[in-house]
Design a protein that fits this description.
GO cellular component, one term: mitochondrial matrix
CATH topology of the largest domain: Rossmann fold
GO biological process, one term: mitochondrial tryptophanyl-tRNA aminoacylation
Strand order of the largest sheet: 1-2
CATH architecture of the largest domain: 3-Layer(aba) Sandwich
Family: Belongs to the class-I aminoacyl-tRNA synthetase family.
Oligomer: single chain
InterPro entries: aa-tRNA-synth_Ic (IPR002305), Rossmann-like_a/b/a_fold (IPR014729), Trp-tRNA-ligase (IPR002306), Trp-tRNA_synthetase (IPR050203)
EC number: 6.1.1.2
Number of strands: 2
Number of helices: 6
Low-confidence stretches: none
Radius of gyration: 16 Å
């Protein structure tokens, strides 16, 4: 949600890809792709954003904390990032999502959005369940 130099962003993408491959992810057994090249993520985020009310987003603790750290000048991108996360999950009709404790509220938002969408337009998105990691 913060502006980045294009060259730094490109290098970050390469570094992240290298780290994923170094962890043992086998591209012959899974799909590995650059999400920013899939326009449906942003398109679905827009649609879901039109179904999500502001008070719901403003209550998220991550928004409150990050906004405070940015001198109360949080961006629209920061505010709506959880809707983009919901789009990332729902686009693939995910049924289970591995999350840490800090992301449970964002997954609950995705669940709420899926239920609201389904109620309004008919059953389309599964309501994803959390798989909490145990450390």
């Amino acid at each position: 949600t913060m502006p980045k130099e294009p060259s730094v962003l490109r290098q970050n993408i390469l570094d992240t890809t290298a780290a994923i491959l170094a962890c043992g992810i086998d591209p012959k057994k899974c799909f590995l792709f650059r999400q920013s090249l899939v326009p449906e993520h942003a398109e679905l985020a827009w649609i879901l954003g039109c179904l999500t009310n502001m008070p719901r987003l403003l209550r998220l603790p991550q928004w409150k904390m990050k906004r405070a750290s940015q001198n109360n000048e949080g961006t629209v991108g920061l505010l709506t990032y959880p809707v983009l996360q919901a789009a990332d999950i729902l686009l693939y009709k995910s049924t289970h999502v591995p999350v840490g404790e800090d992301q449970v509220l964002h997954l609950e938002l995705a669940q709420d959005i899926a239920q609201h969408f389904n109620k309004k337009y008919g059953e389309f998105f599964p309501v994803p369940k959390a798989i909490l990691s145990e450390l």
